[in-house]
Amino acid sequence: MEQLKNAKIVATLGPASSSNEMIRKLAIAGVNVFRLNFSHGTHETHIQNAATIRRIEQELNTPLAIMMDLQGPKIRIGVFEDGSVSLKQGAKFILDMEKDFGNSRRICLPHPEIFNALKEGTELLLDDGKIRLRIEENNGKEITTEVIDGGILSNKKGVNIPNIILPITALTEKDKKDIAIADEISADWIAISFVQTADDVSYARSFANSDVGILAKIEKPSAVECIDSILDVSDAIMVARGDLGVELPFESIPGIQRRLINKARQHRKPVVVATQMLESMISCHVPTRAEVSDVSCAVAEGADAVMLSAETASGDFPEESVKVMAKTIRKTEQDNLNFFDKDFENLTAFSESVAKTVDKENISFIAAFTESGRCAINVSNSRPNAKIVALTPNLKTLRKLSLVWGIRAVLVDEVFSFAQMTQITQKTICKNFEVEDGTKVAIIAGIPFRASGQTNLMHIYKIDKEIKDEE
Predict the structure, then answer these.
(1) Which is catalytic among the residues 25, 54, 74, 76?
(2) Is 35 a catalytic residue?
(3) What digits encode the pLDDT tens for the residues 361-396?
(4) Which among 260, 266, 340 has a CA at the least distance from the CA of 300?
(5) Residues 6+ apart with CB under 8 A from 443
(6) 275 tagged catalytic
């Protein structure tokens, strides 16, 4: 169980990584959370991958979380008669609701619900921002635009509309059907795509079971502006730099990333940094030095987890990508390259007491007995020097904590007495870690036992290896 890194790794499964052998290799290399991308693949494929993850989890005796990433209301154009067209700067180009094949003059935009929101002067970004159009006229049935940045535009490319809150729900009918199999794939986290406001997160939550974590992907400018209210209703967020980098100036993304990480820590919610972290490793066995720096910076800024997308889903070197990311995390943490302030402003009063006591008393472990995982997350937010061991009887909590910085989670029996709590702490730490006699542990729990959200007890315990030997 001894882990050499605190920041966690999320890896996306796909054609390059769906075999039993590869999933096992990725878990051994350092993956804590496996992402199933519902923008691709079938329900059958995802169910099969989830079953493999659970099988590997048992074989390795280590918790592995499953993240269901929903496609969301991605806006796309229709299909061209010849597959693609060339748009020239200054030319006129029409978007309409006609389902005919498109040409160099027009294309179908099969999203009638957004037409009324698009006004004269609004800019549309197509194909990840490679094509830029400006609206000149919108009569409600067709939108006439001027090509500002031209190029080749092909079938079903995405459309981004910055700086406008669109009148669309966070979940499509496809998303709702996908959520319906969350139990079947034993999903621990559901990632909601293209969140615009807190209402989108609340709406999505109404379709999910209460024990599943809801993660809001921040990839719209409106979500950045509403980040406090979104964090209030989310269990975690993801800095999804792909679409975010299309809709906002690229030079603003590093600052926004740091701001979002800080906001997540203020709200005591886990935060994942994603997109193009080791992009070159899709086709090369080594990363660029800039990519290594990017991963390191995300960790040093306080991210709970960093994510691999195509690198593990469809790349040529999925295992190598995970190993590079794990090595980079470990080195960053060993060098103590923390860009964030280690203060107590964002902690609960109890977590502040724990954090200060751990530092002052030179405590090596924090044993957090938890039902929901919340007390362990709160302690994690202080980024303590001590190792955090979350002890829970709840399998769902065990897996969800795989996304959270520094937490090593262990499934234990329900606790009904103080004596039982110290016995479980002693046994768990001696079994899973190399410890010396007298090693200090801060045990935290809630009294009465099994009352979620009632963490109010801290007890300093010293490991007595003779007790273990007697057992």
Answers:
(1) 76
(2) yes
(3) 999 999 999 999 998 999 999 898 899 999 999 999
(4) 340
(5) 367, 369, 421, 422, 425, 457, 458, 459, 460, 461
(6) yes
